Amino acid sequence: MKRIQEIRIKHFKAFQNEEKFNFRGKNVLAYGNNGSGKSSLFWALYTFLQSSIKPNDDEVKKYFVNFLESDTKTHQTLKNIFANNVDVPHIEVVVKEDNGNSKTYKIDTSNPPTRPENNGNDTSIQELNLASDFINYKLLQGFYRSSHKHEINLWPVFERDIFPFLTEGTKNYMDIIKEKTKDIPKRANGSARSGRVKSDFETSINELNTTIQTLLDGVSSIANDFMKKHFYENKDVLKVKLEFTEKFKYSDIKKGLWGPKDQNKRTDILKIKLSIEINKDQENPNWETLHRPQSFLNEAQLTRIAIGVRIGALRSRVQGTTFKILVLDDMLISLDMSNRLDMVRVLLNTESDPDLENIFGGFQKIILTHDLGFYELVKRHTFPDDWEYFKFHSSDLVNEAPVIRNDRSRIEKAQAFLADGEYDACGNELRKETEALLDKYLKGLNLASTGEFEPLMNKLNRALKQITEDKRRSFERAISTRGLPKATLEKLNSDFENDGTLQPADIGKLRGIRTQYTNYLVEQLELNDHSERILDETKDILRRIMNPASHASLVPLYEAELKKAIEGVNELKVILERS
User: Fold this and answer.
1) Residues of the chain with pLDDT under 50
2) Which of 85, 200, 360, 474 shows the greatest Cβ crowding within 10 Å of its Cβ?
3) Are 451 and 521 within one domain?
């Protein structure tokens, strides 16, 4: 499937020089302190995708021009402030296509935006834009920054973060709304039309208001189902209600809603009210409405609601393409560790839930954070086969460009130490990797980072026992009886192929069960032998290599043994991921 292979960004926002991000078609996790360029990557991707639907080239080129105080058309430029006037900013994206070839797209002041008509009717970037989602901390702030005396108005959140990503055909809802409300019908002399024309226009505005409320109802329904299943263990705890209480009116449209300085006006006259219904009794449901939830719910609860609404909006949209990205920028910064773990469980689908796979599985995920603990948490529960890791750093000197580097996996570090002859350091990295693999397998996401000490040899022994138990349970789940009664199943021990008392359909089912048993037994015996061998070899690696590397010892570490140890840890990883 199509994936972003590489992004090159030059003289755009924080990037003074050209920065190359080699995604290799994988998911991406990036850490960096404030001002190091994380959000610049977020906005570069957003600007690039949005260029595919901008109505004219100038709407894109304005972000790459030189700033001139005297020219208001340049005041939205995102050109790096330390770049010279002759420097030309650009955003360049390399896409690996379904056929394995790569195609490069570029926007700047000379290259046209990525609309299909500018690229030989290539709709790839437009499809990517319509299918993708960008979520940052500002989305969450909109759910709990209102004071107690005000109801939560989510119109600004929907205008900025949701409507632009809900689509109807090739248009997003924000463009549809603007098109229908940009002005009232007027005569050639500029006076307002009346009579039938005005009546038809008012009818179309009422239909738009109804459409928005219908959309909000759909978002609420999906959000409630999502939160109930994934946050509240299928219990009726709370429900979201979204109401378009202050709608588009003819008189407001007549005054103008979409001028450069009309954002605050829209917030005052348009309202999407968020209210929450709380169930006060699980045994006998008793729902009570909170009209100002920000005064009664904590940030963790409000964050769950915000994520639920955002997922509701995401699922309200028909996903007609597998080429899509999900970009998350510091969206969990205010949560404590337990609530972060819960959100990571959902976003990464650590428990292989089919419902979550349907929601998040097709996205190329890009997670950005300035919290090192959160970065390490996510990194610990992802794998380099599927993820690329970056670290951004900026100094206190504002005129210095950020430094960006790939954050190598422990196995990659071990290989580098081995190549440099740093054998003790190589062994230490292998031990850390083995600890992390076993913690994830034995404890799962919610307990892997608790810091409880357990000798590594004990973990290896427990892993072998747990693999055996997991195989048995998997065996029991995999063997289907296909709805046959016990008496019919017992005929597996006889010559059922020639049993005249059986129906042809039942003989076919028994034949399938026999094949299922045989194939599964052979597969599990092979896996069992492989698992025991690898775990035994890992124990040997621990005794002879990892322990001497971690403690003062006279046992020499030899290059060939370390190479074999690296191969062994990689095999261990495969075994634990498959189990």
Assistant:
1) 445-450, 551-552, 554
2) 360
3) yes
Distance from C-alpha of 106 to C-alpha of 245, rounded to nearest angstrom: 42
Q: Are residues 402 and 432 in the same domain?
A: no
Question: What is the C-alpha separation between 160 and 209, in angstroms, rounded?
Answer: 18
Q: Which residue has the tokens 């035994």?
A: 536
Which residues are CB-neighbours of 247 under 8 A, at least 6 positions away? 209, 212, 270
First and final C-alpha spacing in the chain: 27
What residue type is 441 in one-letter code? Y
**How far is residue 459 from each of residues 414, 440, 465, 466, measured CA to CA in Å?**
21, 11, 10, 10
**543 and 436 co-located in one domain:** yes
- In this predicted structure, what is the pLDDT of residue 375? 87
Mapping DSSP to helix (H, G, I), strand (E, B) and coil, where does residue 278 land? strand
In terms of domains, do 370 and 429 share one? no
SS3 call for 280 = coil
DSSP, res 79: B
Strand partners, 171: 168
In 79-144, where do the E strands start and end? 90-96, 102-107, 133-136
Q: How many domains does the chain contain in total?
A: 3
Q: How confident is the model over 433-488, as pLDDT tens digits?
A: 887 777 777 765 444 444 555 666 677 777 767 776 766 666 666 556 667 788 88
- The secondary structure of the chain in percent helix, strand, coil, rounded to multiples of 5, reads 50, 15, 35
82, 204: one domain: no
Q: Are 368 and 6 in contact (CB under 8 A)?
A: no
Task: Tell whether 345 and 430 lie within a shared domain.
Answer: no
DSSP-assigned letters across all residues of 531-553: HHHHHHHHHHHIIIIIHHHHS--
How many whole angstroms separate alpha carbon 544 and alpha carbon 167? 60
Which among 393, 391, 412, 413 has a CA at the least distance from the CA of 401?
Answer: 393
The answer to whether 377 and 449 have CB atoms below 8 angstroms apart is: yes
Answer positive or negative: Cα dihedral of 167, 170, 176, 182: positive
β partners of residue 278? 238, 288
- Strand, helix or coil for residue 375: helix
In angstroms, what CA-CA distances link 296 with 69, 155, 275, 281, 548?
A: 47, 21, 11, 17, 56
3-state secondary structure 243-273: EEEECCCHHHHHHCCCCCCCHHHHHHHCEEE
Which of 358, 390, 407 finishes a domain? 407
> Look-up: residue for tokens 């296909």?
482
| Angle ∠(204,127,262) on CA atoms, nearest 5 | 45
Find the domain containing 347 and state its range. Answer: 1-132+324-407
The dihedral sign for the CA sequence 201, 206, 212, 214: negative
| pLDDT the model gives residue 554 | 46
Round to whole Å and give the CA distance between 93 and 410. Answer: 29
Out of 290, 323, 356, a domain closes at 323
355 and 387 part of one domain: yes
The Cα angle at residue 31 between residues 34 and 104, in degrees rounded to 5 = 105
What is the rounded distance in angstroms from the CA atom of residue 147 to the CA atom of residue 334? 18
Are residues 220 and 90 part of one domain?
A: no
* C-alpha to C-alpha distances, 242 to 83, 153, 214, 273, nearest whole angstrom: 45, 10, 10, 6
Q: Which amino acid is at 117?
A: E
Q: Which residues contact 17 (CB under 8 A, 6 or more apart)?
A: 10, 11, 401
